[in-house]
Amino acid sequence: MNGDSTLTLLPPLELQLLAAPGQLQAAWLVAEGYSNDELGMQFDDWYKVFLPTMREEGLIDGQAAEAAQAIATQLAAMRQTGAPLLWTATAALHGAPEWERLRDLTRPALAALGLPPSGHDVLAGVQPAKMIQALRELLGWLARPAPEQRPYLDQPFAPPVQDLPLTLDDCVTGFVPRLTSAGAITPAAAAAVTAVRDFIRSPATQADPALCDQATLATSPTWATLRDLARAALDTLG
User: Fold this and answer.
1) What span, in angstroms and rounded, lies between the C-alpha atoms of 20 and 82?
2) Inter-residue contact 105 to 20 (CB < 8 Å)
3) CA dihedral over 151, 154, 155, 160, signed as positive or negative
4) Cystine design at 27: which of 44, 96, 174, 227 (Cβ 3.0–4.6 Å)?
5) What are the pLDDT digits (tens) for 121-160?
6) Angle 143-146-151 from CA coordinates, rounded to 5°
7) pTM of this prediction exceeds 0.85
8) How many CA atoms lie within 13 A of 127 on its CB side?
9) If you average pLDDT over residues 154-172, what whole number do you get?
10) How far apart are CA 73 and CA 54, in angstroms?
């Protein structure tokens, strides 16, 4: 990279998001109202629109361009041969090797731009109102009676049922400390929402096969408790 460009080159959020852990990616996507494929589309915009101009102006060098090309190639392969759930399921962001490969490719790209390869605060630009709305929507789904939950899960390419508690976990972990420190939610609301997250994380819940079985939504004690906790959290959150 041109040694004088660090004063004008802004850290690209598109790359920071691709390099972020799955938990932060999921939280950002839910707050902004997107599915997983937005991460790839944001990179596409940067790669096709901004990268050529940056190279023409001497803001980046060939090494950074090659690193970006490697990311574009990986995304193209995922789109051609990857499973549909790569683009819809939070669990894929956490554990799919394709997404981990993207992170491995994005870190050198950031380094080639003269930026830290990791540790970016990708949630810094998310408005508190969007964080709160994301929590409300996730809690609202978890609080619904089983017959009202099934239509969403029956949609084509809907994520598996266990993805909803996992996504709430990601959002609570990413949002609640920020919202609490900013005074955007009350301590009581923070405690109620965190209680839902803690129940999801509990060893008994994680070991219960019902958490992964859509057929047990109406009969499982685990889902019933989760429903009750979500309703209480919604009431407290307002």
Assistant:
1) 20
2) no
3) positive
4) 174
5) 999 999 999 999 999 999 999 999 999 999 989 988 888 9
6) 105
7) yes
8) 5
9) 92
10) 20
